[in-house]
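About this split. The held-out portion is used to measure sequence recovery: a designer receives only the C-alpha cells and must propose an amino acid at every position. Recovery is the fraction of positions where the proposal matches the reference. Here is one held-out target exactly as it appears in the evaluation file.
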C-alpha cells in the first residue's frame, strides 16, 4: 500500500518534470521558471511521500494494537 503510493507520486513527478523540460526546450518557459517549477514539483513530491510514510506508520501501529 505505502510503496504503491510512493511509486504513483514519483511517476507523477517524473511526468511533470518531463513536461517542464519539454516546455523549456520549446522555449515556452524560461530556464529559470522551469528550474523553479521543477524544484516545487520535487518539494511537493517530498511532502507527499512523507505524508504517505506517516500514514503507513499510523496504520501499522493501529493494526498491531488490535
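Reference sequence for scoring:
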Amino acid at each position: 500500500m505505502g510503496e504503491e503510493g510512493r511509486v504513483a507520486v514519483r511517476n507523477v513527478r517524473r511526468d511533470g518534470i518531463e513536461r517542464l523540460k519539454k516546455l523549456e526546450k520549446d522555449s515556452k518557459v524560461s530556464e529559470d521558471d522551469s528550474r523553479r517549477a521543477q524544484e516545487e514539483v520535487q518539494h511537493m513530491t517530498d511532502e507527499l511521500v512523507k505524508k504517505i510514510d506517516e500514514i503507513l506508520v499510523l496504520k501499522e501501529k493501529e493494526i498491531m494494537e488490535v
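Annotator remark: The two ends are 19 Å apart (CA to CA).
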